[in-house]
C-alpha cells in the first residue's frame, strides 16, 4: 500500500515532488535544527489519488491519525480538547510556489467549548475569540463554500459600528458576537452548522485543500506560469503558533535580500499582534523588519541568524515566513524567493562573487524572459512631474493605462484592446485574472510581501503597493490623493514600479539602461550594478553556448544595431521590404509589363537599387554571414488594394468621367492575380520560376554587391536562400540560374563570386523530403512561422484574433504556437529534417529564422535538435545569446530553470 504521510523529521528539500515545496522545506528546516512547529505532510500522491476518484484514498486517514497521535503526545495536548486544546493549521504546498492560489485553514480544533479553554490557558479572552473567528471564516469560505465577501462585509460592518479602523481594536465581546454572526451566516448559506468536531474539521479541511488544486484561480495561475496540471498539491498539518497574542507577538515575512533589486540585507514586513495571513493579505499596513529590531531585538537577532543559515544552505535568496509567540521565534516556511528580473541578475552575480555558486550556476539562475523585461523602456524622469502618490516599489518597470477598480472590468477592457491599471485597496487571489489583464497593479495597502507584490513580481508585472495617501473607493470607482485630487475610473495614469510612484497622464518613455549599454557600452550610472550583472551573464553565455545567434535585418541600420547587440551575422534578410515605398512603382511596372522588353526595363531599374541595399548590409556585417532570401510574398501585395481600386473606378464612372487608365490596368492585374489563399499560392520559389528575370535580377544585385565589397578590400559572406521550396526540383532549377548569373558577374568584375545556395524549410513536405532537398541545398533555415501555419492549417493573420484566446483559456495551447515552438508537431518535423538533411550532407549548415529563434523556450529546443544557429529580430539577439548559453548548461550540475 502506498505511503501517504510523512513527518517533518522524515523529509528534506530533495523531496519536493512528493512533499511539495512547502513540506520539503519545512522538513529541511527541521533537519537543520531551526525552530519549526512540528507537523506532518500529506503527499502529492494522496492528492492525485483523491482527484482521480473524488474520494479519500484507502488508508489515508489511518496514517493521518497515527501521525496526529504522535504530534499530540509530543505536545502534551489533544486536538481540540476543552481545557487546553492543541490547534492545527492546514496549508497547501505544491511543488512550485503558487502564492495565494490554494487554501489555508488556521486554528483547526477550536469549537464552542475549546475556545474557553484557549482563553484560560493563554490568559487572553480576546485572543481566543479572534482565533475562533478566523477559523470559522476560513473554514466557512474554503471548506463550506460560503462567499468570502459575506464574511468580510460582516467584519467591516462591525468595525463601522464600533468606530474602529482595524480589527485589532475589536474587543473580546465584539469578536464573540462576530463568531455567532459568522456561524449563522454559514447555516443560512449552506443549511449546515459549523462543525464542532475537531476531527471532522481536520478531515474536511485536508480534503478541501486537495480540491483547491482544481479551483479556478489555481488553474489560471498554472496556465499563466506553465505549471503542469497533473502535479497535485501536498497538504501540511502543523501545530499552531500564535502571533496574535498581544504586543510581544507578531508575524512577518522576510527576504534574505531585496527581491526587487537584489541588494543585500534583510528585507520584509512585520505586523505586531497578527497572524501570518494578515501580513500577506495587506489588510493592515505592516512595518519594516528594521522596526522589529527595535520592538524585539532578541527575536530579530535570532531571525538574522536563521536567515543567514538558510541563505548559505540554499545558496540563494530565501523567502521566509515567521511568527513570534510571546517572545519565542518560530520559522513557518522557507522557499527560494521569487524575484524581479533586475534582482535575478544582480543576485546571480553577487552570489557568484561570494563563492556560493559557480559562474555556470549564476547563468542558469537568470533567464531570457527576465532580460527581455529589463530591455523594456522606462519613464523619462525629466517628464514625470509631481507624483499623485508614492508607495512601495514592489515590482519594477513602467506602465501606462486607464484606471479600473475591479477584476471583471480589467479583463473586459483589456480584451477590448485597452491598456488598464488595476487599483485596489489590496488584492486577493480572486484578483488574479485582473492582474494578468492589467499593465500594472496599484494598491493603497500592503508591502513588498503582500499578495499583490508577490504575485506581480512572479509575473513580471509592474506593481506599486502600500500607497497609503490614496483613499481607494471601489464602489464609487475612484481614488482620492492626499491633496484631495480625485481620479475617476478610466483616467490614464503612469505607474513606475521601480520608483514606487504613480503619475497623472501618460509619461513619455525612454530606452532602458540595458539597451543603452548594448548600444554604447555605457548605460546609466544609477543602474550600474544591474547592467554590470547583465553584461557578465551575457559574457558567460557567449563562452559556453554552442548555438550561434544571428539577426533578422533588412537595412544597414538594423544590421549595425544587431552587430552591436552581439549578432554573429544575418540569418534572414528579406528582400521584399526593399520593394516598398517609392520603389513600389517599379514593381507595378514589372507586373503590368505587356512585353518582355517592358518587364526587363523594370527589372533593370530595380537592379541598382537592390545592389545598393545589399552593399550597405554587407558592409555593416563585413566578415559575417548574411543570408539573403529571394522574393517571397505574392506580387499582388505590392499593388494597391483591390477594393480601393474598384471604388475609385466606380466613383469616376458615377461622375460620368473616364476612369484613370492606370487604375483600370492595376485592377485588371489585381483581379488576374487574385487568390483565395495567397499564402498557399504563387509566392516564394514558385514566383521565381514563373516570372522570367526576377531571380536573375536579385542574384545579380547580390553578386555585384559582393564583388564591390571584395574589390574594396572587404570580406562579404553572402548566402542566397530560396523560400517555400517543397520539392528538390524547384531548388535545382533556381540553383542552376544562380550559378549562371554569379559566373557572369565573376567574368564581368574579374573577382570570383561564389555564394552558397540554400533553402527555407517551411512546408511539411520539405521537412519530410529534406534528404533529397539537401542534395541541392548547402544550408537549411527553418521558417518556423510558415511551418507552423502549414502544419496546423492555420492562417496566422486570421486565427490569432478568431479563436486563439479561447484555445488558451481552455488549455488546448499552453502558449501560442507562434510564440513558442510546438515541439510535438512542428518540432518533430524539424527533427526529421535535421536528421535526413545531415544524413545526405554531413556538413549541412542548419538554422532557424522565424521569430521562434528569439523565444527562450524554443532556443532550448533548437539547441537540443542540433541546429547551428538561431536568428531573430535585433532586439531579441541578447535574449537568444543568453538562452543559448543556458541551453548548453541544461542537464549539467547546478542548472536551474528558475
Automatic annotation (TrEMBL):
InterPro entries, alphabetized: ATP_grasp_subdomain_1, PEP-util_enz_mobile_dom, PEP_util_AS, PEP_util_C, Phosphohistidine_dom_sf, PPDK_AMP/ATP-bd, Pyruvate_phosphate_dikinase, Pyrv/PenolPyrv_kinase-like_dom
Domain Pyruvate phosphate dikinase AMP/ATP-binding, first and last residues per copy: 62-285, 294-343
Annotated PEP-utilising enzyme C-terminal domain residues: 534-885
Keywords recorded for this protein, A-Z: ATP-binding, Kinase, Magnesium, Metal-binding, Nucleotide-binding, Pyruvate, Transferase
Pfam family, one: PEP-utilizers
Enzyme Commission number: 2.7.9.1
Reaction it catalyzes: pyruvate + phosphate + ATP = phosphoenolpyruvate + AMP + diphosphate + H(+)
Gene3D superfamilies recorded: 1.20.80.30, ATP-grasp fold, A domain, ATP-grasp fold, B domain, Phosphoenolpyruvate-binding domains, Phosphohistidine domain, Pyruvate Phosphate Dikinase, domain 2
Cofactor(s) needed by this chain: Mg(2+)
Top-level taxon in the UniProt lineage: Bacteria
UniProt keyword Transferase present: yes
Coiled-coil positions: none
Presence of the UniProt keyword Magnesium in the record: yes
Domain PEP-utilising enzyme mobile, chain residue ranges per copy: 418-500
Family membership: Belongs to the PEP-utilizing enzyme family.
Protein name in the entry: Pyruvate, phosphate dikinase
Lineage: Bacteria, Bacillati, Actinomycetota, Actinomycetes, Kitasatosporales
